[in-house]
Design a protein that fits this description.
By secondary structure, the chain is of the alpha/beta class. The chain has helices spanning 3-9, 11-14, 20-29, 41-50, 84-95, 113-117, 130-143, 170-173, 184-187, 192-210, 261-265, 274-280, 292-297, 310-313, 331-342, 354-360, and strands at residues 31-35, 55-59, 100-104, 122-125, 147-153, 156-162, 219-224, 229-234, 268-269, 285-288, 303-304, 323-326, 348-351. 36% of the residues lie in helices and 17% in strands.
């Protein structure tokens, strides 16, 4: 790309004293990997491609679905059933033909994560599940790559930047799996929320590469769209962090995304089979692992123990009593099932697809 073309295309940001020609050259030499091309990634990617980041990597194994379109604005109706990573590359290349784009139509895994991440200077985590998130962070921590984090859930979102072993890591901030392990596809999300988070991530990436402004390093930006409030939380290193202080690795088996589907199916009760299950197990405990507010809106009865509280309240349950766990979509109940089985419970089951399946069958 000639100097005159560069000055013309990127003129408005080159005019900024904090970026200038020197900063633009840094962007051109930078290599950024985007993990996930969904709601957050689909907004982040056009901005960093437009800003002239020289090399982009996009990893995502999902296909575009109609339900994605309300928030994943990079895609159109004609793209439904096409691969996200490949489609994103095509659209971004049309936006800026002067950058290099690598599409990985695969899921980031233990087998490929380190090889892929090692090729890039900085990683934007736009994933929608905890397995990918902690895996990405762990590799970035070990390879000392800046890790730009964002997550969206319903009306709330977080954004931060983690870098350097002397600073707090993701585990210092989120040491355990939060209350809901569901992603936005399972529990819903306001379409504009991942869009804003993608813009925030893109801004952090541009600032970090050009060394301008103050980054979100050691800060967590919290957004609540219902109250339209934004808060900055100062982060400190957890002196007892099992990951960055004691070097403990994360067992991938605690994540439901890693469970073999046939194993999970053996403990699943469908909405169709629910009456038969209850008839066969008249003494079964119904265990709701949603939040208090969700339980108050509608429930099947039984006992309420929110997922976040379950590890500390297992002693309230009888390990010999048949137990059917339920949530809204079936995701949290899978996680609760694994927690209880790891605690020695053997007669535990979960309601596949959760209360949503009962609502769709007009059973609730």
């Amino acid at each position: 790309m000639s100097v005159s073309s560069k000055l013309k295309r990127y003129a408005q940001q080159i005019k900024l004293e904090e970026i200038g020609v020197h900063g633009q050259e840094k962007l051109q030499k930078a290599r950024v990997l985007c993990v996930g091309a969904g709601g957050i990634g689909a907004t982040l990617l056009p901005y960093i491609a437009g800003a002239g980041v020289g090399t982009l990597g996009i990893i995502d194994d999902d296909l575009i679905e109609e339900s994605n379109l309300h928030r994943q604005i990079l895609y159109q109706e004609k793209d439904i059933h096409h691969l996200k990573a490949t489609t994103a590359k095509m659209k971004l290349q049309a936006l800026n033909s002067n950058i290099n784009i690598q599409a990985y139509d695969a899921r980031l895994s233990d087998e490929n994560a380190e090889d892929i991440i090692a090729q890039y200077d900085l990683v934007a985590d736009c994933s929608d599940n905890f397995y990918t998130r902690y895996l990405t962070h762990g590799i970035c921590y070990r390879l000392e790559k800046p890790y730009v984090y964002a997550s969206a859930y319903q009306f709330q979102g977080h954004c931060s930047l983690f870098y350097g072993k002397e600073n707090p890591c993701l585990h210092c901030v989120f040491p355990v799996i939060p209350d809901s392990v569901a992603n936005c596809q399972n529990d819903g999300v306001l379409g504009t929320l991942p869009g804003l988070l993608g813009i925030l991530q893109a801004t952090e990436i541009i600032k970090w590469i050009t060394q301008s402004g103050v980054s979100l390093l050691n800060r967590l930006l919290c957004i609540d769209f219902l109250s339209m409030e934004m808060k900055n939380i100062h982060l400190v290193k957890n002196k007892e962090c099992p990951f960055c202080v004691y070097g403990q690795t994360v067992d991938k088996n605690i994540f439901t995304q890693c469970l073999p589907s046939d194993e999970m199916n053996s403990f699943a009760v469908s909405s169709h089979d629910l009456p038969r299950f209850l008839q066969k197990n008249p003494d079964a405990l119904l265990l709701d692992v949603r939040t208090v507010s969700e339980h108050n809106r509608n429930n099947l009865g039984g006992t309420l123990i929110p997922l976040a509280e379950l590890p500390d309240r297992c002693n309230e349950l009888n390990p010999l009593q048949p137990t059917l766990i339920y949530c809204q979509s079936g995701q949290r109940s899978q996680r609760a099932l694994m927690l209880l089985r790891q605690a020695g419970f053997r007669t535990v089951y979960h309601l596949a697809s959760g209360l949503d399946s009962l609502i769709s069958n007009r059973s609730l």
